């Protein structure tokens, strides 16, 4: 701790010194232009000790040392471009003081390069006036270097060298320079095709040259089926079907194309079809559909800072910027035509070998998986194709083949095949997408990209609770980080609080520094990240209290949900003096839910279910994650209350059924490949990848800004270990297990504290307190020495009546 403080203090002092020295140099350099001529004679032949005297005759505002420094750095070294040293010193200082977040090495390289280039340029430009003036604009360095280069390659050669280096410097700063240069040569050149840049093609992997058209594949060189098209638009291309079995020497497609060379049609705006008619059922058509990448904002990497609430407590808060995230621009081509054609051929062959003919096949290439949409020929039964899942997988020698028969809403059958070279879906591309930036969702959670390259966002406020499951190492933690990250990029600290439960202690510790901005905790807790099981129970009970309080406030305000309530509060229709307050959303994230259930059982499950059943309207949402998708952890009650499910790859079909109520998750390929289910049909999504250093940078960015004085305080709960007597039982705060415990005792007709303790795996004191409440409610009789209490409530109906009375 002490060393950390020391380190920070030293950095700050060093930074301050850098800035002060920079300002001093600025003064000296600037003064040099006016006083340099006068000071030159003194500096050129100083008497020993003369400069140390008070009356040394130096006129530079920065004194004798300033004059010497300027003389040396400007005249003897780099000329006017010595100002870059000042810039770098100030930048360095600011960074050390942590006032601004500069990338030092970039500034160092940039300043150095510019200084040298400008020095040579000025040295060359003002070479003629070198002897006449006290000021050498390019300095001795610039003069000597330019003279030497001139002597070697002549003045025109030097000019060319300077121009080329200028362009190289420009490219170093921004790749847009290339476009500027291109335009200089060819002013009519259209705007750069972004998608083509994003998906470079490799001639080696594509039979036809695809450099200037995104996806024009001509399987036969004799074919002239090409077309030009607008960029950023979807492309559907029909490719050669497999070679006819009858004649496997002549590709049917080539023949067809020669016969009908002008079959290229523009089917609809932005869609180009290169159509060949299927001659017979033996020659199905094959199309590849490349859905365009989600449009990104033109001037990306800016801040997503937008006002959400006119009464922000932290009005100077800045949202994290996108440059904190990696972009993972991998160079693998977007579409490998060889692979696509090979897969298509094998699919058709396998189906044909089982006597199934198809009339067309279309491919949608996603980041990690390609969907082949097959239209079966007349009279083929879907079930037959479904049963061939394993045979198709075997013939493609690929894991993770999934058959969707039929694709909902379409009369086709889908076969999902993993790509040989999967692409990473970077979090930055998702957050920078127009869809995310323009989203109107209350709690937008950007999960990744679908098989059609659409950015996939869900509204957690509508979900309203999410269950995330998958075997270990398949991308669960990355998925949870992606969820948190997308919320951090959209919600202001005043609008959102996280309650993080991390039994593993290491996964979420990374978020501890943003405690005062985004985390909620119990008043007596040291850390906002909850790692201890008892604290989890307390926190969940506290959230139940918060939920009840919020419902009371909503009732008082006459609102049905948090959105209406907050809108009223913002419009000053609710008086804070009556207890009203702006309600931030609360997102509870519980990692390793399985472990918690194993240790604390019902004590955890019940408040979770209570929150899941009721908390949606008051803005409390739960996300629970487990790597053990078994029925004793994901119980029926949990499933009923967590309608949004995310399944990463699991080990068995049983596990998949436990999470999604259907198979499928066992066929995923891992590394963030997931199925998202909300409603009827699961969607296959490639989860966005956000790495730990990226999260660290975001957290660092937020934590260096002003936060609230403390974390968001959850209501206090009575400690489980505190004793209690029947006299001070608070019937307004019934234990969350109260009703369940009453049912248990009625069922057993035995008022035993240890029975409650055992069945709900809770401490004796808490069980005792529940028993006291049951006594006050008239459900059990008074303590009867060592014997069990008498149960006064006969059946469920009786209990329901008493519960009603209690609630009123
Ligand atoms: N969306 C993704 N894109 C690419 N790679 C991913 C993605 N998600 C995960 N991975 C890869 O898989 C590895 C394991 O991911 P992660 O740590 O999220 O697994 P996990 O399911 O949380 O494992 P555990 O349960 O052991 O914590 C990561 O280190 C990364 O290399």
UniProtKB/TrEMBL annotation:
Q: Where is the signal peptide?
A: none
Which keywords, in A-to-Z order, does the entry hold?
ATP-binding, Cell cycle, Cell division, Cell membrane, Chromosome partition, DNA-binding, Membrane, Nucleotide-binding, Transmembrane, Transmembrane helix
How does this protein sit in the membrane?
Answer: Multi-pass membrane protein
Question: By its UniProt entry, which PROSITE patterns does this protein fall under?
Answer: FTSK (PS50901)
SUPFAM superfamilies, alphabetically?
Answer: P-loop containing nucleoside triphosphate hydrolases (SSF52540), Winged helix' DNA-binding domain (SSF46785)
Spell out the Acidic residues composition-biased ranges. Answer: 284-299
Concerning its family, UniProt says:
Belongs to the FtsK/SpoIIIE/SftA family.
Annotated localization: Cell membrane
Q: Which InterPro entries match?
A: FtsK/SpoIIIE/SftA, FtsK_4TM, FtsK_alpha, FtsK_dom, Ftsk_gamma, P-loop_NTPase, WH-like_DNA-bd_sf, WH_DNA-bd_sf
- Main localization is membrane
Question: Do the record's keywords include Cytoplasm?
Answer: no
User: Where does the record place the FtsK domain?
Assistant: 452-657
**Transmembrane region(s):** 12-34, 72-92, 104-126, 146-173
Query: Has the keyword Phosphoprotein been applied to this entry?
Result: no
- Biased composition, Polar residues: where in the chain? 203-226
Show the SMART domains listed in the entry: Ftsk_gamma (SM00843)
Q: Where is this region: Disordered?
A: 195-248, 275-307
- Protein name as it appears in the record: DNA translocase FtsK 4TM domain-containing protein
Point out the coiled-coil segments of this chain: none
* Record-listed ATP binding positions: 470-477
- Pfam short name (any one): FtsK_4TM
């Amino acid at each position: 701790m002490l060393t950390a403080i020391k380190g920070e203090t030293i950095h700050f002092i060093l930074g301050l010194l850098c800035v002060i020295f920079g300002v001093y140099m600025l003064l000296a350099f600037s003064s040099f232009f006016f006083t340099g001529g006068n000071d030159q004679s003194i500096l050129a032949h100083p008497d020993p000790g003369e400069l140390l005297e008070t009356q040394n005759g130096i006129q530079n505002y920065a004194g004798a040392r300033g004059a010497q420094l300027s003389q040396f750095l400007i005249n003897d070294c780099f000329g006017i471009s010595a100002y870059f040293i000042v810039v770098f010193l100030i930048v360095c200082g600011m960074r050390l003081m942590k006032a601004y977040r500069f990338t030092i090495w970039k500034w160092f390289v940039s300043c150095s390069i510019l200084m040298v280039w400008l020095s040579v340029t000025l040295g060359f430009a003002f070479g003629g006036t070198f002897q006449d003036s006290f000021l050498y604009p390019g300095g001795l360095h610039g003069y000597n270097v330019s003279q030497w280069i001139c002597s070697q390659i002549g003045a025109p050669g030097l000019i060319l060298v300077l121009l080329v280096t200028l362009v190289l410097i420009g490219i170093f700063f921004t790749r847009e320079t290339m476009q500027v240069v291109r335009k200089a040569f060819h002013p009519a050149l259209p705007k750069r095709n972004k998608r083509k840049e994003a998906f470079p093609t490799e001639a080696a992997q594509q039979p036809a040259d695809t450099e200037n058209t995104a996806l024009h594949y001509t399987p036969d060189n004799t074919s002239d089926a090409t077309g030009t098209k607008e960029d950023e638009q979807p492309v559907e291309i029909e490719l050669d079907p497999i070679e006819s079995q009858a004649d496997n020497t002549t590709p049917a497609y080539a023949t067809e194309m020669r016969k009908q060379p002008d079959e290229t049609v523009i089917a609809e705006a932005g869609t180009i079809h290169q159509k060949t008619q299927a001659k017979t059922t033996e020659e199905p058509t094959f199309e590849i559909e490349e859905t365009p990448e989600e449009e990104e904002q033109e001037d990306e990497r800016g801040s997503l800072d937008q006002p959400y609430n006119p009464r922000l407590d932290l009005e100077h808060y800045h949202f994290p910027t996108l440059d904190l995230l990696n972009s993972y621009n991998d160079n693998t081509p977007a579409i490998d035509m060889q692979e696509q054609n090979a897969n298509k051929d094998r699919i058709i062959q396998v189906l044909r070998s089982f006597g199934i003919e198809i009339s067309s096949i279309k491919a949608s290439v996603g980041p990690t998986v390609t969907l082949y949409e097959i239209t079966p020929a007349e009279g083929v039964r879907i079930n037959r194709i479904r049963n061939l899942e394993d045979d198709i997988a075997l013939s493609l020698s690929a894991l993770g083949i999934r058959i969707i028969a039929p694709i909902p809403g379409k009369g086709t059958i889908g076969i999902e095949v993993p790509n040989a070279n999967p692409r990473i879906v970077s979090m930055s591309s998702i957050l920078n997408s127009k869809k995310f930036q323009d989203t109107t969702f209350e709690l937008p959670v950007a999960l990744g990209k679908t098989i059609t390259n659409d950015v996939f966002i869900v509204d957690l406020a509508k979900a309203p609770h999410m269950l995330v499951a998958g075997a270990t190492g398949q991308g669960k933690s990355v998925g949870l980080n992606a969820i948190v990250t997308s919320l951090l990029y959209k919600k202001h600290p005043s609008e959102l609080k996280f309650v993080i439960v991390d039994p593993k202690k290491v996964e979420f510790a990374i978020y501890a520094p943003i405690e005062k901005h985004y985390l909620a905790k119990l008043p007596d807790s040291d850390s906002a990240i909850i790692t201890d099981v008892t604290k989890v129970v307390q926190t969940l009970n506290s959230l139940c209290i918060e939920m009840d309080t919020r419902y009371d406030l909503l009732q008082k305000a006459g609102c049905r949900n948090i959105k209406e309530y907050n809108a009223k509060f913002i419009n000053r229709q609710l008086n804070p003096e009556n207890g009203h307050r702006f309600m931030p959303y609360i997102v509870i994230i519980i990692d390793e839910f399985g472990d918690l259930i194993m240790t604390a059982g019902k004590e955890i499950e019940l408040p979770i279910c209570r929150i899941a059943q009721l908390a949606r309207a008051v803005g409390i949402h739960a996300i629970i994650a487990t790597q053990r998708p078994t029925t004793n952890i994901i119980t029926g009650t949990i499933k009923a209350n967590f309608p949004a499910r995310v399944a990463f790859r699991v080990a068995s079909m049983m596990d998949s059924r436990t999470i999604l109520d259907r198979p499928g998750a066992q066929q995923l390929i891992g590394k963030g490949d997931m199925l998202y289910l909300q409603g009827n049909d699961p969607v296959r999504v490639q989860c966005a990848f956000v790495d730990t250093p990226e999260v660290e940078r975001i957290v660092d960015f937020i934590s260096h800004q002003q936060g609230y004085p403390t974390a968001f305080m959850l209501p206090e709960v009575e400690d489980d270990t505190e004793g209690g007597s029947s006299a001070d039982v608070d019937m307004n705060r019934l234990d969350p297990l109260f009703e369940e415990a009453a049912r248990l005792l009625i069922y057993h007709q035995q008022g035993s504290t240890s029975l409650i303790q055992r069945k709900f795996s809770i401490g004796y004191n808490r069980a005792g307190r529940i028993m006291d409440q049951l006594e006050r409610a008239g459900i059990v009789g008074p303590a009867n020495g060592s014997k069990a209490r008498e149960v006064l409530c006969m059946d469920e109906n009786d209990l329901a009546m008493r519960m009603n009375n209690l609630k009123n």
